[in-house]
Amino acid sequence: MRSIQIAPPSLRALIAALALAMLAACKVPADPEGTTVEVTGDLLKVGALTTPLDTTDAEAVRRISEAMQAQTELVTGDPHSLFTQLEEGAIHLVAGRIPANTPFSADVGLSAPIGRIQLAGESEDRVLAIRKGENRFLVTLNRAIEGMGN
Amino acid sequence: MNPDVPDEIDRKLRRAAKLEWWSIFWLLTIIAVMYFAMGSSQAMKSAWIEDSLSLFPPVLFLLARKFEAKPATDKYPFGFHRVGSLAFLLAAGVLTAMGGFLLYEAARALVMQDHPTIGNVTIFGWDVWLGWLMVAALVYSVIPPVILGHMKKPLAQATSDKILYTDADMNAADWKTGLAGIAGIIGISFGFWWADAVAAGLISFDILRDGLRNLRIAVAELLDGAPRELASADIHPIVERLSTGLQQRFPGHDVQVRETGRFLRANVISPKGGELQDNEASRLVSDDHAWRLVAVGRQMRELPEREGEERG
User: Which residues of A fall within a CB distance of 8 Å from B185?
Assistant: First the structure.
């Protein structure tokens, strides 16, 4: 039987480079569109699906703006225009009784649960919606709302 | 177990079967681990689907081995040697479909500019970005197949088993899939949303190419084409050797070689006087179906000269 050769030398170099890259990136993932940098110390624009936001959603938004040392600006509107604005980056967050199985989940990113929600007798995790792929922002806000889902 | 193959080959097939059972076991653990780490990464999804579909070749191999050894019956008077061909066509079809699907998914993600969202989870009190868990899962998913693949390959070559060879080849190439997946996740961690879909696309290209090549080989076998090599659609050198050898013993005759599963069958055709005449056929099958009889062959268990020579 031939000896087992996992990878040729050129690939070993690539693996080593990847390992170094992993060490360098050990902090948090980056945002492709830079949401975290945009919001931090500035303004968090929140699309509110209900006016006013109920206590759980309001508390989550308060914690996030506090963690990011940002002012909060509420934007109201119908669900489709709010989610479209979120996809385009005009607002940073959509809140207001969003269940984890929301039909918008294909087009937006969802936070960790911030509580439960009753919909037609079924109990679902309550979440916040963010722009897709803004992973550093997602990690930052998940840390801010940590413990709310329990 | 299989009366048609020598002990040596039978032993190797048994060993291969054992390895395939192990493959199924490890694949199931990998599929479970990958499922929990999958999240919404395209490359992870591709790798997961690939891992799930790589269950097919081991299962098909085990089924084909079981059926191949069965004796001929009234309904299947030629026996079941070609079960291997059928299973190989299925495995190749699965591979091709998988490659095509993954390529479509990756292209769709790139065109739609689908940014993969990967959050963090808390495990044992540690707050970890799910991306690092995916990398760990991918590393795990590479190790068993690569080792098993390298163990299966020599067995596949010795037993001329195409399914086993495809399986071993896919397994041995698994590190490429894993590495591409890892590169995709690391790309995301740097904020390159497209890295993931590009990685998935590269993986799928590889799968699609293998699938199409195997499909060509499988189709050739089902169309009674000349026996092909295990890893390419080129004609196996054994055909040339066999044809020359038989032509020496039957001067002036034509030789046709085809393959049924792992076995070879050769026909020696006399060039003149041996053709079936129309009226002969209708005498044998005297009805509307006479036209369907195009040839009557005579099978030789032993070659007329130099008797006692064993089949290779």
Answer: none
Do the domain assignments include residue A107? yes
- A11 CA to chain B: closest CA distance, Å? 9
pLDDT in tens, B259-289: 888 888 888 887 766 666 667 767 777 777 7
Arithmetic mean of pLDDT, B11-33: 93
**Residue B94 located in a structural domain:** yes
Q: Does B212 touch chain A (CB under 8 A)?
A: no
Name the closest residue on chain B to residue A7, using Cα atoms: B175
Q: Is residue A92 part of a domain?
A: yes
Q: How far is CA B90 from CA B60, B87, B115, B292, in A?
A: 8, 5, 35, 29
Q: Nearest Cβ partner of B116 from A22, A133, A146? A: A133
- Chain A segment 40-59 residues within 8 A of B by beta carbon are none
Cβ–Cβ of B186/A22 closer than 8 Å? Answer: yes
Count how many pairs of residues, chain A against chain B, have C-beta atoms within 8 Å: 84
Say which CATH number the domain at A111 has.
3.40.190.10
CB contact B120 to A (< 8 Å): yes
Residues B155 and B190 in one domain: yes
Same domain, residue pair B276 and B190: no
How crowded is residue B286: how many other Cβ atoms within 10 Å of its Cβ? 9
Ordered DSSP codes for B19-40: HHHHHHHHHHHHHHHHHHH-TT
Instruction: Report yes or no on A8 lying in a domain.
Output: no
Query: Where is average pLDDT lowest: A28-32, A98-102, B69-73?
Result: A28-32
Partner A contacted by B108 (CB < 8 A)? no
Is B76 in the same domain as B178? yes
Please say whether the dihedral angle defined by the alpha carbons of residues B41, B52, B112 and A97, taken in this order, is positive or negative: negative
Of B119, B135, B182, the CB nearest to A142: B119
> A132 in contact with B at a CB cutoff of 8 Å?
yes
Q: Quote the minimal CA–CA distance from B12 to chain A in Å.
A: 13
Contacts of A21 in chain B (CB under 8 A): 186, 190
Domain limits at A103? Answer: 35-144
User: Is B236 contained in some domain?
Assistant: no
Domain count, chain B: 2
DSSP at B293: -
Whether A20 is covered by a domain: the verdict is no
pTM, to two decimals: 0.76
ipTM: 0.73
Checking if the pLDDT of B256 tops 70, the result is yes
Structure tokens at B69: 């050894």
Asked if residue B251 belongs to a domain, the reply is: yes
Residues B40 and B174 reside in one and the same domain: yes
Coil, helix or strand at residue A110: strand
H/E element, A12 = helix A9-24
Task: Determine how many CB atoms are found less than 10 A away from the CB of residue A67.
Answer: 16
pLDDT at B26: 94
